[in-house]
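ligand=manganese (II) ion
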Amino acid sequence: MEKSEVESYIKAGNIAKEIKNFAKEIIKSNMKLIDIAEAIDAKIDELGGESAFPVNLSLNEIAAHYTPTKDDETVAEGILKIDIGVAVDGYIADTAFSIDLTEDGKFKEMIELNEKILSEITEIIKPGVEVREVGDVAQDILEEWNEDNNSRFVMIKSLSGHSLAQDTIHAGLTISNYRNDNQNELDGAFAIEPFVTTGVGDIYEGNAGGIYVLQSDEPVRDRDAREVLKFIKEEYITRPFCLRWLEKENFGKLKFVISSLVRQGILHEYPLLIEKSKAPVSQIENTFIIADEEVWCTTG
Ligand code: MN
Ligand code: MN
């Protein structure tokens, strides 16, 4: 990895860390998700980063892929996952944390376990570490915790960490959070993200959560659609974006245009990822780099 590339990853990570601290300060129970999202968007901008993807604000049984739209009345309650993506020159910091917004601390233990899993994994991230070692640590810590505390937490096996590349959030490598035999070595930039639940540990795909990405370059006839597409190609290129951002541009028939572009396969709409038994989900994520025999956790 080039030195300048490492520097950009670190810079993105530093901004993401500041955003996490900022989010922890401002988020209160019953705050509207749209107000949280707009404050985070503005802060990323203020700190000189770009959004690598729209901030995911996923509540309770929703594991990922929810971002509020302009008139969204949804408020923060229960357990909220804040998943932030910051890019500097296209080099991405991908990081997430969970907040318990209940008065009786209902999700405190789940989040504590989730944090412990990621911090124990962090201990073994060194040059030469294999993907399967991450899975071993994750599963060992979870099983040990359940035994010691008489708890029944479960890992969501269908959600994994991933390698990162310039302008690419999922760059090919899957980093599972359970025992596996993947002997690939971790190298370059990657994100590790265990998800813990009290449910069955699997997810299903729900409705659209407000996040889209350009997936085909086919021409379109409709004038309104052409204008929206031109803007998307200039502003976001290959990066995911959300309705909230487009709503600021005063396009005609925006919702109609977006759904027709999705139907034509020109845009991909990310479905919500929801725990199969609708049980609450916790997520903790950090980005790492291994380069030239050195290791960084850029977001932790
Ligand atoms: Mn993430
Ligand atoms: Mn990720």
